[in-house]
Amino acid sequence: MINFTKSAIGILLALGTAASTSSIASAQYYDGYDRGPPPRFEPDRDWGRPPPPPPGWGRPGRGRCDPRWAEDKARDFGFRRARVVDVTPRRVIVQGWTRRGPGEISFANVRGCPTLR
Fold first, then answer.
1. 108 in Cβ contact with 91 (< 8 Å)
2. For residue 84, what are the domain limits?
3. How far is Cα of residue 85 from the mean position of the Cα atoms in its chain?
4. Is residue 36 part of a domain?
5. Separation in Å, CA 111 to CA 27, 44, 100, 117
């Protein structure tokens, strides 16, 4: 008797799951006419405008020494025709002319561009 009850419950569960899967599979678009499904929704690209720039675009990285700022600081230290010649992860090297002739100054590649002597 117990085996009969277990098998009856198993059959009912199997029929219930089969009925539910067939109803899910048959849930397609049908409006009573011989037309296909509606077109997929594709959002407009904001009236043809280009996408916005990524975050931080056009600004120097936070926590780094901007080469233009290093050149300006070198000019403040008395360098003429200052130009950045090398940027490494640790420092920014600027060369230019001083009163005594050609010179070079190094700045740390961190926020604020502190001078390295």
1. yes
2. 67-116
3. 30
4. no
5. 60, 41, 30, 17
pTM over 0.70: no
Q: H helices of the chain, where?
A: 2-25, 67-76
Q: Which two tokens stand for residue 88?
A: 């490494």
Averaged confidence pLDDT in the chain: 78
Domain assignment present for 102: yes
Q: What letter represents residue 37's amino acid?
A: P
**pLDDT tens digit sequence for 50-72:** 777 777 666 656 678 889 999 99
Q: Is residue 105 part of a domain?
A: yes
Q: Could you give the CA distance from residue 23 to residue 104 in angstroms, rounded to a whole number?
A: 79
Query: What digits encode the pLDDT tens for the residues 73-93?
Result: 999 999 999 999 999 989 999
Q: What is the rounded CA–CA span in Å between residue 26 and residue 38? A: 17
47 belongs to a structural domain: no
